[in-house]
Design a protein that fits this description.
Elements lengths: L10 E8 L2 H14 L7 E5 L10 H12 L4 E8 L2 H13 L2 H4 L2 E4 L3 H13 L4 H9 L1 H9 L1
Parallel strand pairs: 1-2, 1-3, 3-4
């Protein structure tokens, strides 16, 4: 049930798509470390099976499906680092079951800043569209700090 603050009775999960598993783990650790008082599922779909750099759409799709299948899941926000990771995420979204696809969004947010905003919003129980919006605020907020 959506409340006045845009909260729902479940949690939005996040899938990080990166060329580097180490980068995705570090970004996750930063977000969870900075906001230890909130919690949201963060799944990593990063790097190749042999440990090398790259992305795999099948791995991304499986990660999205796992997060979407968690009890109480209200949606999945996918955040990708760059270039072909975005293409892998888009291909993954096309492979999803209809149920998971209807509750998954790919964010244009910057990887680290978008994750931090999304994790905070998901961690306080905001719904999928509010989490998407919070992640999207990251780039303009950073630009304003620099100006």
């Amino acid at each position: 049930m959506t409340g006045a603050a845009g909260t729902r009775g479940g949690t939005v999960g996040i899938v990080l798509v990166s060329h580097s598993r180490a980068l995705a783990e570090a970004a996750r650790d930063l977000a969870t470390g900075l906001m230890a008082s909130v919690s949201a599922p963060i799944e990593i779909a990063a790097g190749l099976a042999d440990g090398g750099l790259g992305t795999d759409a099948a791995v991304v799709a499986a990660a999205i499906e796992r997060v979407a299948a968690q009890p109480g899941n209200q949606g999945v926000l996918v955040i990708a680092d760059l270039g072909s990771a975005i293409m892998s995420a888009e291909a993954a979204l096309e492979r999803l079951s209809p149920a998971a696809a209807s509750r998954a969004r790919l964010s244009p947010a910057p990887f680290v800043e978008g994750l931090i905003g999304a994790h905070g919003a998901a961690g306080i129980g905001l719904d999928l569209e509010a989490v998407v919006a919070e992640a999207a605020k990251a780039a303009p907020a950073k630009a304003a700090q620099i100006s």
